[in-house]
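Handout, page 2. Input:
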Amino acid sequence: MCANRCPKALADRVEVLTHVALAGVAHGFCGRRGGVSTGDHAGLNVGWGSDDDRAAIAENRARAVAAVLPGAALVCAYQVHSSDVVTVTAPWAEDDRPRADALVTDRAGVLLGILTADCAPVLFHDAQAGVVGAAHAGWKGALGGVTDTTIAAMEALGARRADIAAVVGPCIAQKSYEVDDAFERRFVEADAANARFFRAGRAGHSWFDLEGYVVERLRAAGVGTVAMLGEDTYAQPDRFFSYRRATHRGEPGYGREIALIGLPDSNA
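Output:
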């Protein structure tokens, strides 16, 4: 039985992190373990935007789906760091992905996917209404309210925010996320209370708690159950991809991990 978080190792070694708050629905936060990509993208890289072999990316995506909800149709957006959300009524082709950073659905057999490489993936579920959601919360989308628009879109499908469980997955931790004063000012000017998510650093810089900020946005929105995994993508190169780590190391490319959630198809 899982505690607050539990790695689930499959026969093909895909690592899937789950949380008891979402125990009633198929879901998982995949890292980089268990994939077929090599080099800078080694592992379970699922990002079409990366400079990786397309056949390897396709295989990695298939492995991720099989590890979380076998037979489901994977649906992802073209993520642009916005607060835009799309309600999914049917799968679409990869070439037709809408530009958005959150997806919601009440349709069985659809597996919502959010790609990250330091940004915070957030998975949502209202077990009473049978509605799920997934959001890509980088700092820009988080500040712009991507979690709020996701909740509103779920409500339009019959969810109640008091019945929603939301879990923030692996993302860059405060100890790894140094930002400059201009970055901090954006948040403090939006709400003076946001100063609590910054810890003073060297002159002209501070350390930002993205995970804590997203968690507080969810709580302030009235989400019934809010949890986080507390996994730092930057500090665990063997488990997670990280844009910032790749940049600091001068690596030419980086992979993307995927967070997944979906309602099983009872007819499958």
